[in-house]
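Table S2 (text version). Query chain:
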Amino acid sequence: MTKEVVWDRTEQFREIYKKYDSCPYDVELVAEQAGYEIIPKRDLDELDAFIGLNMKTIFVNARTYDNPSYANRIRFSIAHELGHAILHGEIIKNQHISNIEDYLSFERSLSDLEYKGFEWQANEFAGRLLVPRHHLIEQLHQQIQVLRDNNILHLLRSIPDQIRSSMSTPIARFFEVSDDVIEIRLMREDIWPPDVDFNQEE
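Corresponding structure-token output:
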């Protein structure tokens, strides 16, 4: 499944529930409106979340779910598991899995490449859902304007990686995701480095 296919499936999902579209994206509300139940669970150890066998229940780690400092991480985890349900639900249903042993057997049957592909696709779904391209471009332009207003736009040419990292923090705050998610989205959406007219600063 290419990133373009994942993006298309993400936008189809967003369109169905567009009345709940917002920034930051209320992924819990949308998941519940889509018929998914989110259940905090206290015995998940290091696991943040997982999708139930019925593909309609998202279990989240109660310890991190109740901790405000993990709010962004939990939001991404819910979106990730939602991605598994939307993208891979039919595949898993076709395995006729009825218990955890069946699921583990199915998981073991996957090659490393297939397993990494599943995880990458769910991550891409989550990133696109929480950080829509058009809003990301708007936020990027705002940060470029900040550079221009402070007469440091030229730094985009000299230290682009550092500027991308510094820009990611305020953008991440707007979307309520991690800085890493924003850096990935900027690169994945092919909008970095930005097309900038440096003459406007001179």
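Notes on Table S2: The chain has a mean pLDDT of 93. The chain has two domains: 3-130, 133-201.
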